[in-house]
Automatic annotation (TrEMBL):
UniProt similarity note: Belongs to the Glu/Leu/Phe/Val dehydrogenases family.
Classification via CDD domains: NAD_bind_Leu_Phe_Val_DH
InterPro entries: Aminoacid_DH-like_N_sf, Glu/Leu/Phe/Val/Trp_DH, Glu/Leu/Phe/Val/Trp_DH_C, Glu/Leu/Phe/Val/Trp_DH_dimer, Glu/Leu/Phe/Val_DH_AS, Glu/Phe/Leu/Val/Trp_DH_bac/arc, NAD(P)-bd_dom_sf
Official protein name in the record: Glu/Leu/Phe/Val dehydrogenase dimerization domain-containing protein
Keywords for the protein's UniProt record, in alphabetical order: NAD, Oxidoreductase
Pfam families: ELFV_dehydrog (PF00208), ELFV_dehydrog_N (PF02812)
Amino acid sequence: MTDVFGLSHKDAGSVTGQTRHEQVVFCSDERSGLRAIIAIHNTALGPALGGTRFYPYESEQAALADVLNLSRAMAYKNALAGLDLGGGKAVIIGDPAADKSEALLRAYGRFVQSLGGRYFTACDVGTYSEDMDVVARESSYVTGRTLAHGGAGDSSILTAYGVFQGMRAAAEHSWGSPSLRGRRVGVEGVGKVGHRLVDHLVEDGAEVVVCDVSERAVERLVGRHPQVRVVADRLELTASALDVYAPCALGGALDDDTVARLSATVVCGGANNQLGHPGVEKQLADRGILYAPDYVVNAGGVIQVADEIEGFNMDRARAKATQIYDTTLKIFSSAAEDGVPPAVAADRLAERRMSEVGRIRGIWLGH
Ligand SMILES: NC(=O)c1ccc[n+]([C@@H]2O[C@H](COP(=O)([O-])OP(=O)(O)OC[C@H]3O[C@@H](n4cnc5c(N)ncnc54)[C@H](O)[C@@H]3O)[C@@H](O)[C@H]2O)c1
């Protein structure tokens, strides 16, 4: 196990050297048990924004690898969401059920504050709006707070809405109409994002098939929408006749077997990191399956919490999330023009915005 907290300043510097991250900060407070890593991938477009993941990592090396990857992904997501925000993320190493305490969260808040606004935090796996309220007692750079504290509340509302906009764009590109009416959509995972996505789909007239490992999640969904068909698992879902496959559970849904089996001609869902390994985006394209890049269509959540920085307004945030429709269409057409999979076209567009808009900061403003 690499003890990253034991690294010398020089060694820690080499981490950023290898990964091209702007800044990686190791935070430790022995009394509260806090061990956290904050990673800022880049601030070309503005302060870095990304959630805090509280997770019992097997090793500090695994935590470091995760935060480096996640902060890079946030830079791309924020860039294509049209936000004036860079990419960052934080991880707290520990079991949230056992290790989370007021002292630990407040100690963490002081480290966030010490970055002077270079990094804004929010919720992620293992952290909730109530936790952000505690972190905010020590830091001004906190979003994803509770409604009672002027926050945006549950970000899955606009995440699901944005995924639906991305799916409408994929329908327009594939079938010449954005409507999902009569299309068969398979939703894997009907948790916070998945069940709200089903609400939109049912309202639009789609035929919905779902699977979830949680019986409670399925029961709750069927209670709301008795017409939804339930299948056992991903295998059964992806083997059934679908027009759209919407991964809304964990990452890595698109592995070699799933891609080979898929009858759907569109993949569009809320889960992060859907592509199981590099090259899957090409396998999808070769099979004629249109993949709506995950970080583009699931940006509604970050759009919702980013809006808090200005003082939260749901209508304004929803209007911004509606633009995911246009962004997704633009990615499909630039992918077709350049002869590359949409995932590659999305990365190129994000990099272009970071470079072009980031460059203008070089214009000297005078005194
Ligand atoms: N909540 C947000 O605002 C947001 C924003 C962007 C991305 N995401 C991503 O969307 C995905 C879902 O997030 P969420 O907030 O809805 O989480 P959640 O925990 O509320 O829901 C996930 C659901 O997936 C189910 N599940 C887990 N493993 C499964 C499997 N193998 N097969 C079928 N179902 C399975 C769980 O039982 C649960 O019901 C995650 O990948 C998350 O990173 C969420």
